[in-house]
Specification:
The structure is a single chain. Helices cover about 70% and strands about 0% of the residues. With about 210 residues, it is an all-alpha fold. It starts with 9 loop residues before the first helix and ends with a helix.
């Protein structure tokens, strides 16, 4: 004898409608694997810079003069940024296809706006610091403004982004307080924290649809 399925209760229906409305107002195509790859790229960049400037990351005692070759430093940062964005776009678009969600819509535009304003402001701020040869403040500045962008974007995406943003801001403040260790904090923030966050997000949201 088949079990008779009772129709959903009004409360369950309301919860389902609320969930659909919340999802429709959030950008949910971000890939956790993109965070992992971005973290790996950042760690590679950190070790390349450390090797080039003769920094011993294990002893954590150094006085690196980054101003000696700003072009090299900026080039490494741009390589990490381009690789991270490219990988993130590819994986996020792929995830959107798997979930049968549109990658670009009004929600995506709102999310992107919340991210770009702090990032562009931070980028200009760091360029000004570089032009005045205050290069040691740049790693902390990038972490702070990136953290603000991530925290702001959490309102239009996964709520877990809020904690990543707060962690990045704290690391950025520490990097500006302890300037000799700024590269270490940068590697932890953009490298290790991204990998941890990416693995958590993949395990929680993505492995079910792979």
């Amino acid at each position: 004898m088949k079990e008779i399925k009772h129709p959903e209760t009004p409360l369950e229906t309301l919860k389902e409608i609320k969930k659909l409305m919340e999802n429709s107002s959030r950008f949910l195509s971000l890939s956790g694997l993109a965070g992992v790859y971005a973290g790996i790229y950042a760690l590679i960049g950190t070790f390349v810079v450390a090797y080039y400037f003769g920094i011993d990351l294990l002893k954590l005692k150094y006085q690196a003069n980054y101003s000696e070759n700003l072009l090299f430093l900026v080039s490494i940062a741009m390589c990490v940024l381009i690789a991270s964005i490219g990988t993130g776009l590819y994986l996020s678009m792929n995830q959107a296809r798997q979930r049968k969600l549109p990658f670009w819509n009004k929600t995506t535009s709102v999310w992107l706006e919340s991210v770009l304003i702090p990032l562009i402001t931070g980028g200009l701020f760091c360029l000004i610091m570089i032009s005045h040869f205050y290069v040691k403040f740049v790693p902390g500045g990038t972490l702070i403004f990136y953290g603000l962008a991530v925290y702001q974007s959490s309102k239009h995406s996964y709520k877990e982004l809020k904690w990543l943003g707060i962690a990045e801001i704290i690391l950025g403040l520490l990097a500006t307080l302890f300037l000799n260790y700024s590269l270490v904090f940068w590697g932890i923030g953009f490298g290790i924290f991204h990998i941890i966050y990416g693995v958590m997000m993949y395990w929680k949201y993505e492995r079910k649809i792979v």
